[in-house]
Structures are given as C-alpha cells and as structure tokens.
Amino acid sequence: MFGKCFHPPDSPSSYLGFLQKNNNLEERSRIVSSFKERTAKNLLSCDNSGGEARFRRTESDFSNLYARGRSQPCSSCWRSWKSSPATSGRPLTGLPRSWTSTIPTSCWRASRASTWSSLTSLSLWSRSYRVSFTCSSSSSLLLVWFRFTYEIAPVFVLMEQLTLKKMREIVGWPDGEGDGIFSPGGAISNMYSVMIARYKFFPEVKTKGMAAAPRLVLFTSEHSHYSIKKASAALGFGTENLILLNTDERGRVIPDDLEAKVIEAKRKGYVPLFVTATAGTTVYGAFDPINEIADICEKYNMWLHVDGAWGGGLLMSRKHRHKLNGVERANSVTWNPHKMMGVPLQCSAILVRERGLLQGCNSMCAGYLFQPDKQYDVTYDTGDKAIQCGRHVDIFKFWLMWKAKGTVGFEQHIDKCLDLSAYLYNKIKNREGFKMVFKGEPQHTNVCFWYIPPSLRSLPDGEERRQRLHKVAPKIKAMMMESGTTMVGYQPQGDKVNFFRMVISNPAATRSDIDFLVEEIERLGHDL
Amino acid sequence: MFGKCFHPPDSPSSYLGFLQKNNNLEERSRIVSSFKERTAKNLLSCDNSGGEARFRRTESDFSNLYARGRSQPCSSCWRSWKSSPATSGRPLTGLPRSWTSTIPTSCWRASRASTWSSLTSLSLWSRSYRVSFTCSSSSSLLLVWFRFTYEIAPVFVLMEQLTLKKMREIVGWPDGEGDGIFSPGGAISNMYSVMIARYKFFPEVKTKGMAAAPRLVLFTSEHSHYSIKKASAALGFGTENLILLNTDERGRVIPDDLEAKVIEAKRKGYVPLFVTATAGTTVYGAFDPINEIADICEKYNMWLHVDGAWGGGLLMSRKHRHKLNGVERANSVTWNPHKMMGVPLQCSAILVRERGLLQGCNSMCAGYLFQPDKQYDVTYDTGDKAIQCGRHVDIFKFWLMWKAKGTVGFEQHIDKCLDLSAYLYNKIKNREGFKMVFKGEPQHTNVCFWYIPPSLRSLPDGEERRQRLHKVAPKIKAMMMESGTTMVGYQPQGDKVNFFRMVISNPAATRSDIDFLVEEIERLGHDL
Q1: B479 interfaces chain A, CB cutoff of 8 Å
Q2: In terms of CB atoms within 10 Å, which end of chain A has fewer, N or C?
Q3: Which segment of A210-219, A513-522, B134-143 scores lowest on mean pLDDT?
Q4: Residues of chain A neighbouring B509 (CB-CB closer than 8 A)
Q5: In terms of domains, do A226 and A313 share one?
Q6: Could you tell me if residue A372 is inside a domain?
Q7: A471: which residues sit within 8 A by CB, 6+ positions away?
Q8: Rounded CA gap, A27 and A395, in Å?
C-alpha cells in the first residue's frame, strides 16, 4: 500500500476492452494494468522532478491520443469541427481521425487540466449526443460532465470504481471489497450512512416509511459534526432520537457512556440502530476510540459508521493512521479527500463494507435510464445507487491529484500539516497570554486556544473574566478582517467561551506563517 | 423582465459596501447598480458582437481590478507570490498592491473563465486562511470554492441571492420575494421540497421524527421523475405513501384523478400533504396543468411543488412560458439551469415562496460556523439552510452564462431547441416506418417515436409485433454505438414497448443533424 504510488488507469484507449459483458473488475483492472505498463514511461508520472521534460512527454503522448481519436477541442477547434463536413464523432469509440488531425498543438498546451478532462468522456462527442446534451464549450474548462450510466461517462465510472476500491483497501477491508460512491460532501455521505443502516436492519421502511419500524435511536458524540443531526431530522428519525455521547476532556467519546445509553434506550423499548465514531472532530480534531466503540456495536448489533470526513486523510500516513485503529471494523466510512488531502471541493466518499446495500436502499429502477437490455454490463450503471440523478464528476480531480502526487505525496502532505500544527502547539502552549483549550498535543491539525489580553490576565476566574474572554476572539477576528492581514475562526464549545481554532490543511504553509499568525493575534489583541 | 438583459453584479469592488450590517437586499442591489452603470461600458457585456475589441476592454478592466488588489494568480504567479517577502493577502479587502503589480498580463489572457473565477472569492487569499484551507493552485481552474458563510465567499453568496431573486421574479412571485438555494441536482432539489412541506405542516417531525405525524401521503404523476420516489423513501414516508396519478394520452396529470385520490386518502384517515406538478416530464416532456392542480391543493390545504427541473427553462421564453401557467401559485419550484438552459452541470435551484422555511427546516446552528457575534450581517450565512455543509459553487457558471448571453440569449436558446424538435416531429410524424408515441406536437423538446423496420410493418397488431418491436430500439442503439455515428436513448413506458426519445437542449444543433439522425436510424434499422 505504501512506498509505491497507486496509479489509476491512464488512458481511455485502454477501456475499449471494458465493453464486453461479464468482465469482472479484476479482469478490467488487468486490462488497465497492461496498458499502464506499456505507457508508464510516457504518461504523466508521479515523479515530480521532470520539469519541462515531463511536459514534453505528456504532450507527445497526447498526440498519440489524438491519433486514436479521443479528445476534445478548444472553442476554436470546436468551431472548425462544426464547420467541417465530417462531423460525425463516435460515441464510445471516439472522434474520426480526419478531424483530430486538424487540432493545433497549441490548443492542448494551454491547459493540461482541460486536456486531461477531454480524455475521459468518450460519449459526449457523438453527433446526436451533442445535439441532446452537450451545450457549452466552456464545459471543457469546468469539468462538469455528468454520469449516471456507464455509456454516458464510461471512464469516470471506472475511475470511480477503481479509486473507491483502493480507498477501501486503505481502510482495511479485505481485497478492497465493498461498495461506495462519491457524494456532494461529507454531510450527504453521513446521510447515506444513516439511510443504509436503516435499510440494512429495516428494509421495509423504504416502502412503508418510518411507521413500519420501532422507535429507532442513533448515537453520536456531542462533538460530532452537525450533519449527523441534519440527517436524523431529514430522514424522519427526529433529532431527539439522536443521543449525544459524552466525551473526555480532549473531545473523544467515552465508550462506557455509549454502552450505558444503549442499555438505557433498550430499557425504554427503543431500538439502538446506529453509532457514529468520529475520526477527527470538527472543533478539537479528536479521534473517537473506534475499537472500543466497535466492541459495543457488535455486542448490541448496531451499525458502526466512522465519520472520517476530516480525519480520514490520516489513513494515508504511516505515522498517523494508528489514530483510526479499528476503522476496518466499521460498516461504513465517510472520507473527504477534499479536506485533509487538499482535493478541490467537492470530493467526498461514502464507503460501505457490505455490497448491495446502497443499490438496495436507493434504487428505483428508472426505466428511462437503466434498461436491462443495453449492450454492455449494466452493473456499471451506478446512478441508481445515488440519491442524486446526474452527479458532478468529483472523482476526476482526486484521480488527477493521486496520479500527480502518488500515495507517498499524500502522506508527505499530511505529515507536513501535522508537523506544522505541532509546531504551533509547542509555540503557544507555554507562551504568555495563550491558554490551550485542552491539554496535550492535538491529535489532528486543530489547535484550539484562547488569547488572553494583558487586561484580563490578572482577573480571577469567574463570570466576569469568562464574559470578557468570550468577546476577545470575535474582536480579534473582526480586526483581522478589517486590517486584512489574516483570518482565523473561533467558536464556543459546551461551557467553554469563544476560543480560536486554527486548522492546517495546506502543506505549502510554513513555520513563518504560523509565527506571523501568533504575532498578529498578540498585536491586535494586546490592548483589548 | 424581457427585452433587456439581466446583469448580475459585475465586480467584487462593488461589494465592499455590503459589509455594513443592516443593509437590506435592495440597498445592496442599488450599490451594485450604481457600480454597474459606472462600468457598464468597460466590462464584459451581453453584446456578443464585440470580438477582439470586447476582449481588449475586458483586459483593461482587469488591470483596474489588479490595482484594486482583488485577483488570483496562475501557478507561476502563485510561486512568485509565495517567494515574495510581502505575502500578506487581505481577507475581504483583497491582496496588497505591491504584489498584484507583479502579475504578468499573459497570465490573465490564458483563460477568461479562470480570471473571472478569481474575482469572486476574496477571503481565500489571506495568509492564514490559505494555510488552513486553500490547498491546490489547480482550484483556480476547477472553480471549486466553497461557501457556507458570507466571510468565506462573500461574492458567491451575494451572486446566489441576487440570481435566486431574479429567478423568483421570473416564476412570478411578487418582487421576487421568497427563499431558495442551489443544490447538487434536481433530485436533491425535489427532496428539499418534500422536506420543507413536511416542516411547514408538521414542524415537530424535525425533533420527534415521523412518529409525531399522522400517516402522510404524497402525490405525483406516474410520469414524474424518480427522484420524488427516492425522496419519499429517504425521508421516511415510504414509497407506498407516494400515490401515483394517472395521466392523459400525452402524459399530463388528470386533475380529477388527483382529487379523487386525495378524497380516497382522507377517507382512509391519511393526511394528504404534498403534490408535485411536473413541468416537463422526463420521457414525454409533458407539462401538468398547474392551475387546475393548484386549485385542488388550495382546496385541500396541500403543498404544491412544481418540478421544473427539465421544463423550468421555458420560463425564459415568451413564446413557451405559457406551458407553466400557474407556476406562481406553487409553494416551491425546482428549476435546473443545467438542463434546458445549458449551464454546465450541476446547477439546480430549489425556490421556495415562503421565507424562513428552509432555514427552519434544516438549521442546526453549528457553533463552529454560525456565530451570532460576527462583525457582519449573519443572515448572509446561508449554510444552515442546506442539508450540505460546504457546497460547490454552482452559481458562478450560471451567473457567467447569464452575463454573457443575457435573458434574451437564453430565450433564443430555448426557442431554437423547441423549433428543432418541432422540425423533427414534423419530419417523422407521417414518414413511413415511423410512429409517434403520442399524438400532436410535443410540448417540450422530447420527441418520442418508434421506428418500425420493413419486416414488422405488415405484421398485425398483437403480442408478436409488440415483442419484436420492443427489441428494435435497443438493437439500433447498440449498432449506433458500434458504428460510432450517433446515440439516442430509448425506454419503455407503462404498457408501451421500447421507443426512442430524442431530446434537444443544444441550440448549436442544426436541421441537418436532425436529418442525419433520422437517416441513420433508417439505415441501421432497415434490415431488422
């Protein structure tokens, strides 16, 4: 898993073999692998040292791809294509050679990203297909193609499948087995997890509604993300049936509290259904003890969801992944590459250990999209698993980044951010005027602290000091925004008054950025 | 509303005035308008005739914007910025002049889209903010910035508000009053509508779950989009409590059937809650009679939702908007600019007539995002209305297109597509070997037809002919994909065997494209 980059499939030309029915995923992977070996020396590699030479290789490879006839024009090419007599692009087999030879090389140099995007949506260039759907040449820049069936976006569908499998391997599920989908954000991924859990234990709710189930209760940390609460409201459980679990001083769920509350719920006749363990809470960056929570879930037959929206990225780091020990025991996992791994928003995956639940839970078998008599293996039509119809192509950004950075690159990214947050923590933990919100080095990059202006330092603990301290962070943030130098968030939490929460997810940050932040807080807050 | 382009606000420099608390939307609009007047001659206009001259104007205007210090670099500029000693970008007030003067003009020429995107997210360039969040320079191309609070993406938040208001005006709600949000697709927008309706009539479901409500039933056309069914499953109603309404021969809901089924449901003790009228069904492109359905909704106190995901675009056309007559009586409307209006996926709006319901339904008041003690008017923090947390910036593509094409441009786009579909209909309605699925000119661009190969033409109506005809469209589609010339979808519907459904949403299509399609179907299907 480590020490070697994971290369997702390289080029759509390798996908033609996928069209045969009855190829399983492994066979398809072999097709991809053999293509990869042939072209590994030519294509964009995760070796970042090549500089100009790497660009040249990339370009020459793109020329091959034109010759294979799978590519997409800039707007001037588009115009020349439209005015050419031979405008019969071919779905699934690409554009005619006669046309592609007219593409000026400069068209491809302008934007590597747009060029890459052009390689991946074979079907949109057929003549009547563009009549129906492809509307705007700007879409080549905006990467907004959609898919719900394999025929519409075959390469994206396969990219998603292979990448999700790799993510499941990293979670620790044997052979990466299971299921999953990319969703529009962690809140929706968490919502999926609750839906699937309900479908697993009470499938009749799909047809008969919540009235068909007993009173179901859900459990989550008092520090968990508010999306769990939103899901409990939206899906018809009701927020009162989401039971909040106490945490220790550092914001980690106390397993004994979970068990006590499960027992209490059962005593009242409720049915404990679902537990979220958070891997990286929003405010403290805390990691709940997954193994201990998993023991309780097994004992009481509850679904275990790990919300790793924020902390899931640490699975890529050999140094830090132990914080998620036990994640392989989860029934579902939310993991947002758009957070700690720096993939541009949005890119969130819901991973599910048991195959078929997503499909069973959400499928409605829309006749106009999902016809069983299509000429290819329709198990690749992933749309019916989703609560959406068309989806944004979130996989592509992630795939491209993984391609460019490699697994090791993500690991370095994450280790760097955690090193920086440790630097910040060590810098301020004993610094005059600063007070940490919780003791000890943060588990994630969240560093939570109060700045105490000189005027408050001599005040005794008590309501007056609390009230005045509560106003300090908002004032400093307002001054930051006015002076335009920096911005850092604050919030209260439980009985703790407003404190700063600095999170670091950009590995391009430096220690001098951190130094600047601390000095700026002191400068702006000194006279409060 | 018509005859004159709607210009969304032009430049972020006009937004500085928005920061004062207590400005209402109208005052903010005035600030935008006055800025617009000043700069209307310089900025990208909806006059598409300018050619090179227009580009030059645009560039010179961007130079002004650098001087104002609000812009974003290409990756080489980014590197030079990082290595410069004065790297203190200012949130909400932009970048320092000293830095912006170093941007080479060529950097901006490469991509207008990326340049425009750069103008709209003021806060991401502050020093510590980029430490926390901004990770990838590729994001400048990918337009993937996020927002849940005004301070993160002030311009996008305001763009969204102004554009939603304009859409509500076009729907016909007085002064564009009401609420709304962009969501990741029509399926989610429709899900919102059901959630909001439930919250309006049974707000206690939010806290107590579906157990707190009586047995609620929903009504929708048998031809409606499957997302309504997905919503009824996901939200805990159960698909059996979604009652399907009969349609006439052309796929439009029969109002009498609705009333009869409402009465029947009440007789059983159920509570009729929600009715969807579809404006543009997926397969037939039918428009339900909204006014007659609205009468029944008023009579029985039910929520009326208009699913205009596909047909909402016709509101932009003076010639065709009568098909949605009565839409102003809806409580909520789904309208996907990414469909008929050609905005790149995804761009879907849920519009709500009553203000406050979205917020009431979904807000969870997450302390870490939504602090009441912020220095600006926190009613601009729209995140708590959504079931998502961060959202993709879908508004920007739409705004940009509206800017470029104008309302009149959208109208022409839509009229052209409907003209083309009428051309297809007239071409095949009496053509040998073709048979229309329903009589009369389609209401939308959906043209539904069978191709009957010569071998079937003499067969009498009956099971054998049906069975053989059922296989014709899949076979022709498979041959299309094999030969790579074109692709058109098919599906069965009710008791009708597989038929082709051609939809046209790209106004760049021509009559010769349509001719080609028809000839290709004849060529491929002749010997079946």
Answers
A1: no
A2: N
A3: B134-143
A4: 130-131
A5: yes
A6: no
A7: A498, B373
A8: 21
